[in-house]
Write a structure and sequence with these properties.
By secondary structure, the protein is of the alpha/beta class. The protein is about 30% helix and about 10% strand. The chain has a six-stranded parallel beta sheet, with helices on one face. Strands 3-4-5 form a three-stranded parallel beta sheet, covered by helices on one side. The chain has a two-stranded antiparallel ribbon with strand order 10-11.
Length: about 475
């Protein structure tokens, strides 16, 4: 039962409030982090999730021998798909180098060239090198496991309704000289290895250029380049302009010849297999005593090839469904037979400091209704069973600690307000000033907002009661436990 993104990095207004509120000691960030841990524990959560500040960690960071004394289990996150695209690493983005006249769909995300040897090298470094004191990470009992990536950096992998990765591999340019989107002025190695891997895959399947042309109804003159991308006649020149590769269905390729679609589906499976194999191998080498979790988070409708590859290598999968029915998570389990923990959230913009912004589909009108929605989510997750009778939900990862105001989202995701760091409990998140159970100031909001957290605490408590663990949540040295 984790909480994502426990951090003061939530915009200048929130940071200013944190500095004002937690000024008891010189170690402001430590005090903020310790108090956040006390608060989420009192609401029935028992772990810190991805994107949380290092100050919540119970182990030493930046050479320190000890971490936060208010110890709580945590999930580590690495992001190789994002950071391998940096100029100093040099892995290329497959999406950016496509013909804009052919692929006219959404370009809001990236997908790294995971067949590039530099990607494997970077993953090894990312999995083993971090801010933790050497030797602390794999020896600590507080690490639950490592989340291997952020699915937002995995276009075509995260969800199955936008872009087919096999087709992307076929139409992307075979070389890249530079990239404005990733800030690379000149690549030392211009090869796009995923496109070469697709060529090798097709030759292995069809035996020769003639075999490929016959199977696809194609007329490539060479497996290499003949005239140059995007208008040449060789396989490496393929940009999606050829009739056998042209499609109006970027996600499912339903208007392509069945044989072409089958080859691209199978290469997608190869791509997913390599991705999960490379990253999990590196993580297991660095932390052999801990779990390996899937990217945060794949949508329930990610392609079967992706889920099956994930299940082959991961210990626990992470998925999300909202605002779609929670029962869709059974699809994930039936495909994988692996435990799943769930990215989840609940939103009520009208009853929050973000009342002037329209929230996402499925938002609630009040904090009380938001709390009931959360309780229903937890109840439904507890009730989910696979066709084999297994209760496959391993937990939740709640998004998030504080309301999101950066990145243009302006959404009431938080357990606390982004204006005053007040808990959404109907007592702190109000205009009147007061103090909380630890003596910190509360109130001062523009309006009186409602009570989300009473329902959250009851729902979380119901989990511990059902498991016979109520009272077993550690209290920490100075916090309130769920008793």
């Amino acid at each position: 039962m984790a909480v994502y993104a426990i951090s003061s990095d939530a915009g200048p207004v929130y940071l200013a409030r944190v500095k004002e509120k937690y000024n008891r000691t010189a170690s402001l960030q430590w005090e903020f982090a310790s108090q956040a841990l006390r608060r989420i524990r009192s609401w029935g959560f028992n772990a810190t999730g991805e994107y949380s500040t290092n100050y919540v960690l119970p182990i030493g960071i930046h050479g320190a021998t000890a971490g936060n004394p208010d110890q709580m289990p945590f999930i580590r996150l690495i992001r190789p798909s994002q950071y391998s695209l940096r100029a100093d690493v040099g892995v290329k983005d497959l999406v950016v180098a496509t013909d804009a006249s052919v692929y006219t769909g959404w370009r809001g995300s990236r997908l790294p060239d995971i067949f590039d040897p530099k990607f494997s090298e970077f993953v090894t470094s990312a999995a083993s090198t971090d801010v933790y004191k050497p030797g602390n990470l794999d020896q600590t009992p507080w690490l639950i496991g490592t989340t291997i990536d952020d699915a937002d950096d995995l276009f075509g992998i995260k969800r199955g309704d936008l872009l087919h990765v096999g087709w992307l591999a076929a139409i992307t340019a075979p070389t890249q000289l530079s990239s404005k989107s990733t800030g690379v002025t000149a690549y030392a190695d211009t090869t796009v290895y995923t496109k070469r891997a697709l060529s090798d895959f097709l030759v292995g399947r069809h035996g020769s250029l003639a075999g490929l042309n016959n199977a696809w109804g194609a007329s490539y003159t060479t497996l290499g380049s003949d005239g140059g991308w995007p208008g040449g006649r060789g396989f490496l020149d393929e940009s999606g302009r050829n009739p056998w590769m042209r499609t109006g269905d970027f996600a499912n390729l339903t208007d392509m010849r069945p044989g072409v679609r089958k080859d691209l589906d199978d290469f997608l499976a190869e791509f997913a297999d390599r991705y999960f194999h490379v990253i999990t191998a590196a993580v297991r080498a660095a932390t052999p005593n801990h779990l390996v979790f899937g990217p945060a988070a794949l949508r329930f409708d990610a392609r079967p090839e992706v889920w099956r590859a994930a299940a082959k290598y991961l210990d626990v999968l992470q998925a999300y469904v909202l605002p779609d029915p929670i029962s869709n998570l059974t699809r994930v389990y039936e495909l994988t037979r692996k435990p799943v923990y769930v990215w989840t959230t609940a939103v009520a913009n009208p009853d929050s400091p973000l009342y002037m912004f329209k929230g996402p589909r499925g938002e609630q009108p009040t904090q009380g209704a938001r709390g009931q929605q959360y309780a229903e989510i937890v109840s439904q997750l507890r009730a989910l069973r696979g066709s084999d009778g297994v209760a496959f939900i391993a937990g939740i990862d709640f998004w998030s600690w504080v309301d999101k105001v950066t990145g243009g989202e302006s959404t009431n995701f938080g357990l606390v307000t982004n204006t005053r760091d007040n808990a959404y409990d109907g007592k702190e998140d109000v205009m009147a000033s007061s103090v909380d159970a630890w003596g910190y100031p509360t109130g001062g909001e523009e309006r009186d907002y409602g009570d989300f957290l009473t329902a959250v605490t009851r729902a979380n408590r119901s989990v511990w009661e059902a498991l016979g663990l109520l009272g077993a949540i550690p209290r920490g040295p100075s916090g309130l436990g769920l008793r």
